Queue: 3 jobs
Job 1
Amino acid sequence: MSEHIVSPKIYLVIFLTLMAGTAATVWAAYHNFGAFNIVIALAIATFKATLVVLYFMHARYSPKRTQLVIVCSIFWLAIMLVLTLADYRTRGMHESRLAPPSNSNLVRA
Amino acid sequence: MHRTGELYGHFETLEQQKDSAALGMWIFLVTEVLFFGGLFLTYTINRHAFSVAFGAASNTLDLKLGGGNTVVLILSSLTMAMAVWSAQVGKKQWVSIFLIATLGLGTIFLGVKVIEYKQKFDHHLIPGSSFDMRYHSEHPGPNDDPKEIAAEKEELEKAFAVDPDINAHAQLYFSLYFGMTGLHALHMIVGAGLLLWLIKGSFAGRYTPQYNTPVEIVGLYWHFVDIVWIYLFPLLYLIDRHQ
């Protein structure tokens, strides 16, 4: 198995796509999409990050065990984000001895 | 340790050695993802709780400087990728040129960050006893456009009407702003040190199509730092620009 060399042409296309993504992020931020502003911003950022990982960081051409490590990092990050936010978003939804004090700013925030 | 050229004794081939090094770097980057992930989580919870203050504080950032820095950093990722490519195809001179370009762009990024931080000091937007969101609109500089100051004042008063405790809540935003961009900048400084080391090696002609592992591994680190900024830019600069 020989090493895969990514051509400068692909690097340039990825770079231009990342630039277009940056322009799209700024454009979208100046328009009111209500609750979707943050969704659009994160979707574009994730798209850009994916391109960097796949091409600049050669993940697409890496051995499967390296790809597994990358997927694991996303999975562990998801555990941290989802479980913590699920906790915060559901606090104070029903009375409980475990509920935080009602004067906490974070309750029902 | 037994070593033949660049190949250490416990590896069969240079390629196996390179794959192992990349795997090790990725495992380090997993810990970095979780490290920055914790900060992004803190940011999310506080932004949700204090959205008005976070919006008003975010609008004090200079979009031209932040956006320009985004372009500079992504361009530095391109030159880093090109340095790896130059080593892979044996263009030794271009390895040095692209590494120096990457270091130059990284330095520009850090310089712009210094200008941005200085502005926040001048405008009393550093968390602490003299923090005051109104300071800048009440003490405008000689170069400030009076119309912009009036608009800033109006926007700020609206925010104060919704959240009277905005000075307290905006300090949370700026603590996260300086914490996250500061840690990102610290990673850039470490990256700049690694680039200097690579540049020294490239002058000695150390990186060849057979052996370019250090360039590849520092490249992984540099691109990761770029990814962190790809998330920081919209989350810190673009919270509430559409009003």
Job 2
Amino acid sequence: MSRDASRLGLLLLLAPLLLWLFLLIILPHIGLFVVSVSEKVGVREYEIGFGNYAAFFTEPLYWRTFARTAIMSMLATALTLILGFPIAYYIAKLTKGRTKTTLFLMCMIPFWVSELVRTYGWMILLRETGVFSNFLQYVGLTSGPIEFLYNDAAIMVGLVYTSILFMVVPLVTTLDSLDDSLIEAGYDLGGTSLSVMREIVIPHAMPGIVSGCIVVFMLSLGNYLTPILLGGKDSLWFTGMIYTQFITRFNWELGSAFGFLLLALSSAMVFFGLKLSRQSLSNTMGR
Amino acid sequence: MTEAPDLVCRDLVKDFDRFRAVDHVSFEVPQGSFFSILGPSGCGKTTLLRMVAGFQTPTGGELLIKGNSMIGVPPNKRPVSMVFQHLALFPTMSIGENVGFGLRQRGVGRSEIKTRVEEVLARVGLPGITDRRVDQLSGGQKQRVAIARCMVLEPDVLLLDEPLGALDLKLREHMKIELKALQHEFNTTFVYITHDQSEALVMSDNVAVMNHGRFEQIGTPHDIYHAPATAFVAGFVGEANRFKAKVTGKGGSTLSLEPESGAKITVEGVGSDIAEGQNVEVFLRPEAIELSKTEDSFDDDQNVTAGVVTSVLFNGANSMVTLKDTAFGATLTVALPQTGAFSDLHEGDSVFVGWHPSKARCYLVERSS
């Protein structure tokens, strides 16, 4: 009796999660997959086949955009790591108490406003009539206005900016758990700043680095707003291409195939990333 | 010896924002000796050690290692190594990589590192464990690896920051003997800090007792125990019965004292700074007190009083009995003789205690306390 009751309780507690997983993740993916393997042969006539996937590989624009998105996301991840690591190290190891909280909060504050507003902020800074352009003209470094927007560098700036918090947080957590005496022992045994960093700090921070990289890579790969707004119509981001297929071209079949390819890509990247860094998913994400 | 001592500190001072952690400390440690700094937590001993290691800069004073000033020399350039309180073995490396870390930093060749690591591990009694991970070792093995990691660099001075603190009692006793043996084996100068007096007394050639940032006394373990220079040393090192008394007479180095209750006792061998009429504190080791069931078994010059046993604390060879002295009302702790003569002692028994006037130590009661 009481066992049945506790089982029912458990089921009820799990119900929202299970419903969410099933209705919003599993069911749509099954539907999407079914759509992606349907080929249109006539008006309201469909056949099962992999023609949509074949279209992706035969049309260079599609797979080149795909590759470009992957490479730019990797670059954004690397840049975020390079920028985020010193910030995280400073917060975790060189500050204490209130300063630490304040700095951590300062990293967080930009994320209190929506991504759209933040991206418009960058547009105000970078556009032809924006702050940077006007400042350079005022100082006299250029004679005419400069357009900083609508190029790959602008996309990169936006991607790094929107995802740096997700790199800093796991890094601060893992670096916090590094005992200061290990760093001191490194110096005491004759280590230089560089060798202590390379042999003691980075190996310890590896789970944080990998989990930060996974999150940032996923966020960049799946980002839609930033590449479209900062990159303009030439941004050629794969999410934008999926959007076009669904909304503009009304080609749901091809769009679904693209969606599945993106899913496969991100899963593969995470898999190889973990293999390369010899970390396990439970080790990096499970804490 | 004309050779400069391995470590010399002169008037070393360290100030923090609000207080002075180390206050004009001076000492010398000759080559190959085992020097302990003993003190309660918060007395500044860790700060002192960290200054020697180079992690903290002294506010004032001099610090010489083998005759060279170390002021302004960063920790990775000093000929000292430190065994940390929690050992600080690198968990991401194997034992071999841990021990070889310092040699790698010096740019020693790969094959030479391998032989030297094997050699030093064999010397600490752990041959052939280079491929193991840190978490596969027991507490005592980690200890020895931590020492090996420092000794492979052949430092002039090895600093040890309470490394035995985390071990259980049995292992700690064992490691005390082992550390002393290792120090002999390597013939390196060890500077050891601890709050455990038995660690300091067992292992050291010289002990410095530290309190509130100052050295109260530097001496051999024997001197520290039997001739403590201050009341703090007498109270901190070893067990001691302590009671307050007023000086009623002074003849040479012999004092006549009157404890608060009115009985009369005499104490010998006190310094000249105590005068008649002052208040003193008397320290008396439990093993300096003799027990007897009859009053006439004591010598004439001993202080003899009667007491009632309040409890018997059996602890093997360290068994004690506490008794209430009926003459001056103090509670005394007395070591039971190991002959087993008083094994039939029970609570409530009447006994006589006697102690020789030269066994007690007197110190002036400080006004502030």
Job 3
Amino acid sequence: MTTITTFRPRTGRITELVLLLFAVGIVLLAYVNVGLAVNDEIPPNLQLHGGLLLAFTVGLHLVLRWRAKYADPLLLPIATLLNGLGLVMILRLDYAAGRDVGSLVASRQLLWSALGITLAAGVLILLRDHRVLRRYTYIAMVVGFLLLLMPMLPVIGHEENGSRLWIRIAGFSFQPGEIAKIALTVFFAGYLVATRDALSLVGRRFLGLQLPRGRDLGPLLAAWGLSVLILVAQRDLGSSLLFFGLFVAMLYVATERVSWIIIGLSLFCAGAVVAWRIFPHVQTRVNLWLDPFDPNASSDQVAKGLMGMGHGGLFGTGLGEGFPHLTYFANSDYIFASFAEELGLIGIFAMLMLYALLVERGLRTAIGAREGFGKLLAAGLAFSIGLQIFVVVGGLTRVIPLTGLTTPFLSAGGSSLIANWIIIALLMRISDHARRPVAERVTDDPELDTPTHAGVAP
Amino acid sequence: MNAPIRRLAVVVSLMFAALLVATTYIQFFQAQELREMAGNRRTLLDEYGRERGAILVQGTPIAESVPTNNDLAWMRVFDQGRLYAHTTGYYSFIYGAGAGLERSANSLLSGSDDSLFYRRIPDLILGRNPSGATLELTLDPDIQRAASEALGDRRGAVVALDPRTGEVLAMVSHPTFDPNEVSSHNLSAVQQAYVTLNEDSSRPLINRAIGGDLYPPGSVFKLVVTAAALESNEFTPDTELPSPLRYTLPGTTTSVPNFGGSSCSGGDTTSLFDSLRVSCNTSFAWLANELGAESLNDQAEAFGFGQSLQFPLPVTASRYPVDADDAQVALTGIGQYDVRVTPLQMAMVSAGIANDGRVMTPYLIDTVRDKDLDPIDTTEPREFSTAVSERTAQEITDMMVAVVESGSGSRAALSGVQVAGKTGTAEFGTSGAAHAWFTGFAPAGDPTIAVAVIVESATEDWTGETGGVVAAPIARAVLEAGVNR
């Protein structure tokens, strides 16, 4: 008889499986709903589409059991549910556009989802410890900047909807900014972990603010210059806001200095105001934001989206019963408005809550992470999802001017889907590391560890 | 690093809170406004998905939805579209429900009106598309046709009311248009027709009977001045009024002549009775000045000036200029300066006098019926105001009878029926061009129909057309159709 009982920490994998099956169940019901509402029949590819979604997500669940069994159990079900709902809405809009079975955007989206999930599994299998990424800090920087600037190249750069965010090679178009987001988050995390002492402790105090030294302003100015370049050359306030916001947020997390936020935000506002003064395309966006119903407006996109949301009202028209296809880009930039129309205020509240929960799990992972690099990376990745949702949905709802970003997991488009599944995989990896009990830890490579408190030597 | 991450989480919550607020505002508080916005195709598609109610005149549809086999399940068809264009309005897929009842009574016709709520419940339960209510109008097809034919090619308007109830018996505005042209499903033809109608300088889409730029009333406004004078108890029909050849406007050197420069009675004074009978300008200018702007305005408002009605078509309020100086007040006495009226308002003046001084609220919808034609709502006649006393009404009626029997309105006379009326020739601009007016009612002893007619000047110059010559015969045709009904 022993007085010591073995305490088995909960991995949460059972919870994850139950929630995952629940999520897939909701998606299948929505599929059937759309088919019945639009064509009075159960969609013929229900088994195929549903089966694939189930197989790949359960597959990822199994990979988690094998390689990251302490990963946060909510990440996979939430991502699956959002991805699945996106597929349903894209299929619904395929029906509205009268596309035949061979050329469904939804089928392509399903393949991209499968690829994204596979890549996520690949990340979990190959990347045993996220801290390895720190070694590639500067490579990530180069890759990130290159990807970000690629759409500006002649020939392969490609403009859509007034924003130059795409590259097109051999008939495939791709939004490199989505992948760049990950690379830059890795770079920011690695860079800030190394330089945070200098950035946070040195400098003069002025009016209660710890002002940085002139030479430490360099990186901030570089990031600012890059974001202004995106705003002007790619004509996209969204990406610009996303990258700069992400950088400032991570800078703040690393240094705990409010002065960085104030300096950063002032710089961004100044840049935005100058761009608004000088560039007519920025002015157009701002005018559309202030008065979308102006009969002389250059576009009625915002107005149509608002009318769609108004049409949905509190309870929505029901899936397949509204007219989301009357709005341009209904399955990509405006997919959130499509949901607002058919699922109503109640439906999009639920979806916003899913995103909020996803971001919250990411930030929770950051808090739980035991070393600086993991904290910064998790916080950055989670915040980037939250900020992106804010920029996209805020654009539709006139909180900020409309921009051309994708809605994570929902929008039709492969690059975004792949990028977001990789983000989820990285968060899973970090959370697994954070939640793993001491006894099961792989021997930490001391080289990989980074301090979590500024200025405190290990 | 945990403290700033927690603060970052607060920032994220604030961002999500902003989105929740914004979506709530759009989808709950602003939703109705967005749905009713012109050019909202979703609302139109929704409405096209259900059978819209018909508009009936004596049981015959003048607007109804017929099933089609294209995407838009129903098409709006206007039988006798040009005759009833301004009453029905149009129902266009591109431009929405416009003008007329299609717009003003849209919620009834489309079935979304609150008064239809309980009737929608069974539809909701059975999953049927709810259908709209049918409107039975007060219009009389014979009077409407008589008015339209009599007005012919001339620009202008005719309104006929039943003075006892306020029922609108006829409402014609020329030039008219064919609502079918903008309501068909041939969208490019619709677009072209719509542009043509809107660019037409004669503005056929305007319902001149109740809106548009309004008209100066000219001498028909003397009815209101006479009413004010008699109601003041300082004047009787026999009171002699100064009637010089020219009346010098107070405080100015400008003078107003009588029509054609003639004297009103041969002497220096003319009785109020004869002043109205021969439409004496100088005595009425003097009288208006004597009564003052306030008294005239009160009397005009008692007849309905200054109030915009919804019957349910929106009626622009007629107006009397309250801030006029003495010279201008004198001019208002002959319906000039800034007095502006709708033909409907002048018909209400006549109808009020015809109905012993009581103006009835005009209405166009007699009965609202559900799709099985069971009545949902029947309009009861309502008194709008008591504009003058019964005695005053009788005295003015006698004067108006004299106008038709031995005055300027002789061309409105009917054989065997006594007609009461008043002509008007309203100058506008500076070239001397004038619109021709006639308003009156019949039979004078027991009125069943009151009418107001305006015929716009055909040119910008004076062509010798007066109310008595141009408008009175049209009124005669309408009154004839009305008394025989």
